[in-house]
């Protein structure tokens, strides 16, 4: 019993920290900077990589990887003439799980929007994310879970303060809206399809 209570307490603390990033953009940026600094220390030939402190106004060039296949995915792979939504998430984040479930239940309203769930977490942690929390999104042609193995999101898009972080780009590649953290699902859907 003591082990069970300790496990629940540790899991709750980890989940809270994953979702909230301590409610401080500085902490999220510090963690991202620390991660990038560690990578740069391993390879001293790399120049310093700046982090995106503000959401980028125009969709940048990027290369992520499809979690299921490992195939590269770039901005050239995005279907044209529709809104494109990037959701930066942590698979263990309760708010991310909840938003995904609510999006899944409202898929009919979102079938004309490109939905990309992106994480820097190990792909094995992301592999069953949609199957577990958003079954209705699995195998949809406009939905993909992407692995950001080179931390391009925080370098080119934005370093969020909280998860899930949502970024909506129009058909012209211009940023239409963005926010960090939990929002009412009606607001989220309205912004995605606006």
TrEMBL record:
Residues 30-54 are annotated as: Disordered. InterPro entries: AhpC/TSA, Thioredoxin-like_sf, Thioredoxin_domain. It holds the Pfam family AhpC-TSA. Residues 53-194 form the Thioredoxin domain. GO terms for molecular function: antioxidant activity; oxidoreductase activity. PROSITE patterns: THIOREDOXIN_2. Residues 38-48 have a biased composition (Polar residues). SUPFAM superfamilies: Thioredoxin-like. This is Thioredoxin domain-containing protein. The lineage of its organism: Bacteria, Pseudomonadati, Bacteroidota, Sphingobacteriia, Sphingobacteriales.
